[in-house]
Protein 1
Amino acid sequence: MRCIYPMFEANRILKKEALTAIRDYSFDHARLTYQDYTPGILTGCGITIHGNKLEVSPGIMKYNERILLLPEPEQIPYMATNCMQYLKARIEEENVLPEYIAYQVTFILEQ
């Protein structure tokens, strides 16, 4: 087992190995922290009503084995009805490129 911790000091340039360690640590930390959780909302994502909009607060979701961060509140159009409504999160792979995979999270309100 090998652990690399970059040194953040003035006038020091981070080398490729240090940048790779930063990248891997952040993804591995989230993956290991939530490895035993089932897919869905892990924390946050509270729902509040503001007039004619639902607001989903920032949070963390698990989709398959991926950890998705929702750093900003999301607003969804809303209108009160006499029927049960379900707020669903649609998660789609938006772009799959050699450099990255981008996921698009869209909230949908259904009856």
Note: The chain is about 15% helix and 45% strand.
Protein 2
Amino acid sequence: MSEGLVDPDAAGGVMVEETNYGRLLALDPAGTLRWSYVNRAADGLVYHLNWSRLLPRGEGEALAAATAAAGCP
């Protein structure tokens, strides 16, 4: 409705964030949906997303390991 972003990936696709609807979409270069995610809580409520980004696999794995090592869930 009022916010969102598009983040290109190295393969020529894009990730689209629909901020107000709590949804992420990943599209390949042809515009075909690769995956989607809705930020939905266990009670069914959908929460906004902000500043979502695609990370290279190695960077994401390093971040996940550092988070786990710090005791974060």
Note: The radius of gyration is 14 Å.
Protein 3
Amino acid sequence: MSLSRPDVEKVSLLGRLLLSEAEIDTMTTQLARVVGYVEQLNEVNTEGVQPMAHALDMHNVFRDDV
């Protein structure tokens, strides 16, 4: 999936961002790199890996509500 200038313009409109022409060009390049990186991550074999909400083992540090 490639990211085009009209895509960035639509996202900026939805986000109510007023971007100049130069900023739209910059964002198009930068966001295309981000999308490309995410596409690379989709290629990683995650079969057998348990889904998790956080990278660290989290536990509740609060005391019991009595």
Note: Residues 18 and 48 are 44 Å apart (CA to CA).
Protein 4
Amino acid sequence: RVRPFATVGAGVLYSAGEIPAGSTTVNFTPQLGAGVAVQGDEDVVYTFEYRLHHISNARLSENNPGINSSFFQFAVSFER
């Protein structure tokens, strides 16, 4: 059985140094993704996901270049 899904999230990133350099130590991290969970054997689920991730200080300082990243994620989980 194949189950598609979508994810949306956000958070706050505090750091000891400025990220990126010349910016601020407080940033925000919105993200979104989509994937599928595939039922394998009786208790095994394989999850494939693609996620977009952004880091930005939301103009808390004049320097706000932002950092974008994306990644693929694969997971195996065992259900009981």
Note: DSSP finds no helices and six strands in the chain.
